[in-house]
Amino acid sequence: MATIKVKRQGTAQLNFVYAYDPLPEDRLFVVVVGLGGRGRELGTLPICHYDALLALAVQCAAFMDEPIELVPITAKEYIELNRDGLTRHWAKLSDEARAGAIAAWEGRLQ
After folding, report:
1. Which of 17, 33, 46, 98 has its CA 20 to 30 A from that of 5?
2. Could you tell me the end-to-end alpha-carbon distance of the chain, in angstroms, rounded to an integer?
3. What is the tally of structural domains in the chain?
């Protein structure tokens, strides 16, 4: 894990960006502002944007009171964390769209 110290704009105080190292099986990462029980999830993005978002997090941390965490997760972890919302979304898809999404998920879609 990388711990990046960032000088807060207009003060002598520091803020931090905590960037956990992705594992080979990680496909997404969660952006969290704050730590512990006070953290707020801002969103989840594909792992291919990790470097760009890390650079953006460092820039944003200079203007924020709370630290930023970048937490890599697997696709399975994402599904487990968001099962209810995904179930509602999948129910709205046509049969054809659902079949295409499943094929893409399973690696059968070329």
Report:
1. 46
2. 35
3. 2
Write out the residue range of the structural domain in which residue 10 sits.
2-73
Which amino acid is it at 49?
H
Q: Are residues 58 and 89 in the same domain?
A: no
> How many whole angstroms from its chain centre is CA 74?
10
pTM above 0.85, yes or no: no
| pLDDT, position 9 | 92
Query: Would you place residue 36 in the very low, low, confident or very high pLDDT band (cuts 50, 70, 90)?
Result: low
Conformation bin of residue 16: beta by default, left when phi > 0, alpha when psi is -120 to 50 = beta
Please give the share of the chain, as a percent, with pLDDT higher than 70. 93
**Residues 12, 52: one domain?**
yes
Q: Which two tokens stand for residue 72?
A: 């890599």
Answer yes or no: are the C-beta atoms of 39 and 33 closer than 8 Å: yes
Q: Please choose, from the candidates 93, 29, 72, 49, the residue with its C-alpha nearest in 3D space to the C-alpha of residue 104.
A: 93
Q: To which H or E segment does residue 90 belong? A: helix 83-92
